[in-house]
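Justification of resources, computational component.

The compute hours requested in this renewal are based largely on the per-chain cost of generating structure records like the one below. Each record pairs the submitted sequence with a full structure-token output. That output is archived, and it is also reused by downstream analysis tasks.
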Amino acid sequence: MRLVRSIWNGAISFGLVSIPIKLVNATESHSISFRQIHTEDGGRIRYRKVCELEEREVTQSEIGKGYEDADGTIIPITDEDLARLPLPTARTIEIVAFVPGDRIDPLQMDAAYYLAAGGAPAAKPYTLLREALKRSNKVAIAKFALRGRERLGMLRVVGDAIAMHGLLWPDEVRAPEGVAPDAGVTVRDKELDLADALMDTLGEVDLADLHDEYREAVEEVIAAKAAGEAPPEAPERAEGGKVLDLMAALENSVRAAKESRGEEAESGEVRRLPGGTGRAAPKETGGKKSTAKKAPAKKTAAARKSTATKKPAAGKSTAKKAAASKSGQAKKQTQKKSTAKKAASRKRSA
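The structure output for this chain reads:
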């Protein structure tokens, strides 16, 4: 890991064992930041720190902390005041308990940090704590003070390092009251089976393969405008209709998921579960007939036209054959009459 500036120096209190450590940010933001500008001329918009009493801009070195009382009075608080707080966690990460990891509600998770050993003397106790956490399959719950307030933390092993997740205090997590639907909804077993099939079809994903597509798209826009080119346009999305049939929507989702993974359902479509409703997908509103239904009708009409055009040709051929047959019969009759006349002529002459 590349060297990162520590944001806090202190020690882990593990019973009577003290482990000097440095607190390092475990995450970094890759989001693209924008500056505020004047849209008319592109000038930067800046904020200046001005003292209200003197009405002048002040430097960072002149700025301190103050607490505003209920009557509006500002009570100055210095860094020395905070350093003398009667708290054991002022410069110490005090471990208070060890609990199974699944006891921690993910809603409490906050910022993440790495705890780096503070020098060679810290190597042995640091490794001891790390291996103890590994063997117990537990996490350590600790209290520490950072940026002017006491916080709750969870220590766990990440690779060969100890990481600490800041935790919200339990009273800082809101209860999910009024979030779930009020109306009583019954989910059928067939719908759950299809939902399970969809989950199995989508499968798992390696989180390392996921990336921020929005940030990449913004970078493309910035690069295009910097080069004096028109920014790329997003393709138009097909408008989705309202989901009126949950079973049909689930079946279509399973089918689409299989196609995206290069799989094919049996007979080209997803089978309905036994005892299904057998309802088709809802028709589009607006009185327009489905395009899928028109296609067979067009084919049938085309087939009829083709058959109709071929019949006259067959009729003409039959008529020609009949005419030829009559012509042949007429010639035979003429030849017979001619032979009879010759025979009669011979008798008369005799």
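Residues 265-320, 340-350 have pLDDT under 50 and may be disordered. The domain at 8-34+85-172 is CATH 2.40.290.10 (Ku70; Chain: A; Domain 2).
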